[in-house]
Design brief:
Blueprint: E1 12-16, H1 18-21, H2 24-35, E2 40-42, H3 45-59, H4 66-77, H5 90-93, H6 105-117, E3 124-128, E4 145-148, H7 150-160, H8 162-175, H9 183-192, H10 196-206
Parallel strand pairs: 1-2, 1-3, 3-4
């Protein structure tokens, strides 16, 4: 399937951990890439709970309902097809390797449940998380899940479809109006999350270097 370059002939399915959903600029980019059809985002009610618990602390949002509104936008972008069920059943939990930290078992189990629903040898399943210490990349590989940091996931999409990804990020930048966000600031945000190859390519294409400092690079 041309729209899913990471899964030739199939779909690219990704579980987005709370640490990928929380940073505002990162999640803007991830969902714009999903809206382009490059992959299908998934998560669970447990991940939503973690998102809501940490939203104000991470984003500094003043509005108490900001997290709920943000989640509503995520759900709409995923066309309400995001939620994974059954990941907390004992039989599902039992499949999670011991290398996964206990507090992140629910995330790993969700990714494994998604992999079980995928079409073998056609669809690819990714777990997108910044918490690679507690969700080691090799832990789920034998069960069909590729674990990547958010930046590495963006870089993988960019390597497969550079023109499409550049077009998406150009539109992301144009949409960031409240408050306005500069190209240099968006590149700094992507750099902060480890999308090194994408930042290097966009920096050349846009003729601008990533902004220094991390005040707005979330």
């Amino acid at each position: 399937m041309a729209d899913h370059p990471l899964s030739p002939g199939g779909f690219s399915l990704a579980v987005l951990d709370a640490c990928a959903l929380l940073p505002p600029r990162l999640s803007d980019v991830l969902f714009d890439l999903a809206l382009e059809g490059l992959y299908l985002p998934h998560w669970t009610a447990d991940i939503e709970d973690e998102f809501l618990r940490n939203f104000q602390a991470v984003t500094g949002a003043a509005a108490p309902d900001g997290g709920a509104r943000r989640l509503g936008a995520f759900r709409a972008a995923a066309r309400m097809r995001h939620e994974i069920f059954g990941h907390m059943d004992p039989s599902a939990i039992a499949r999670v390797p011991a290398a996964v930290d206990k507090k992140d078992v629910h995330v790993a189990s969700a990714a494994l449940m998604l992999a079980r629903s995928a079409e073998a040898d056609v669809d690819k399943v990714f777990l997108v998380t910044a918490n690679l210490a507690d969700l080691p990349p090799g832990a789920l590989a034998m069960q069909g899940v590729v674990t990547l940091s958010p930046g590495a996931f963006i870089d993988a999409l960019h390597a497969a479809e550079p023109e499409r990804v550049q077009g998406v990020l150009t539109r992301t930048l144009a949409d960031l109006k409240d408050p306005p966000y500069t190209a240099a600031e968006l590149l700094a945000a992507l750099s902060l999350h480890g999308a090194t190859a994408t930042v290097k390519s966009l920096s050349r294409a846009w003729g601008v270097a990533p902004a220094k400092g991390r005040k707005r690079a979330r």
